[in-house]
Amino acid sequence: xxxxxxxxxxxxxxxxxxxxxxxxxxxxxxxxxxxxxxxxxxxxxxxxxxxxxxxxxxxxxxxxxxxxxxxxxxxxxxxxxxxxxxxxxxxxxxxxxxxxxxxxxxxxxxxxxxxxxxxxxxxxxxxxxxxxxxxxxxxxxxxxxxxxxxxxxxxxxxxxxxxxxxxxxxxxxxxxxxxxxxxxxxxxxxxxxxxxxxxxxxxxxxxxxxxxxxxxxxxxxxxxxxxxxxxxxxxxxxxxxxxxxxxxxxxxxxxxxxxxxxxxxxxxxxxxxxxxxxxxxxxxxxxxxxxxxxxxxxxxxxxxxxxxxxxxxxxxxxxxxxxxxxxx
Length: 328
Known about the structure:
Elements lengths: L4 E6 L4 E8 L3 E9 L1 H5 L6 H23 L8 E7 L3 H18 L3 E5 H12 L7 E6 L4 E8 L2 E7 L5 H11 L6 H9 L21 H13 L5 H27 L3 E5 L6 H8 L7 E3 L3 H4 L3 H13 L17
Parallel strand pairs: 1-4, 4-5, 6-9, 9-10
Antiparallel strand pairs: 1-2, 2-3, 6-7, 7-8
Helix pairs in contact: 2-3, 4-11, 5-6, 5-7, 6-8, 8-9
């Protein structure tokens, strides 16, 4: 079978990333230009600033990705770009650039779902992983339990009804004064504390999630007692949300009759969450998770997902547009 070189482009939020991936799993380059420092002073991502920085960075990032991969434009077989979900202005930069390359180089274009990209990050880190399996996608914008029937067939069997888990981490961090980005800072501080603060339990029928109640409870606790031990609060919050994730995932695995579980998304880099999911292997589960660099937004995962879409026959035309609320 001929090797297929995919150029991946990711610009859904505040990372401008371009990658070169061979056959969906072998990363030849994965260049990520992060805007975290730019948005840190605002306490979160400012969409217009993100878009402007994507425009400034994307050409240089693409050149660097090609140079690191040791290839030229003529060696590319397919161009995969994130077209949703995400910030519409940020998405448009990547989509427009990808369409320009596709037209100029006469190369096929494959619009790719950002969430499918997070799932595909596991294919890069684990060469042996193949569908079917259960995937828990946990990020700043999503909390989904998805059954992966095949590389291009997905069934959502549970999702958040309000805040995504990463959103809850960021809001908790903001309330207790840790700043942005909140997830890594809560994870770090939690290591210094004990999960000894009782938090209210949220009960949702079925396999859906809800994190707005726990966020509100922590805000109220902090307002009533500003001197509360922040490390203990972070540790208690982490334990609470992790218990919910694990309980729902176990129930989903029973429903789908699988013991193969993959984690995906930025929050899957959380050390406590990973540790607790790895413990499931003592119960006969096989747990996969991407390398930390592949958990956050990156173009290698888009190139991988785009490769599987491309070989299944999906090719986009030059009318491809950004879809900020794109569903999986």
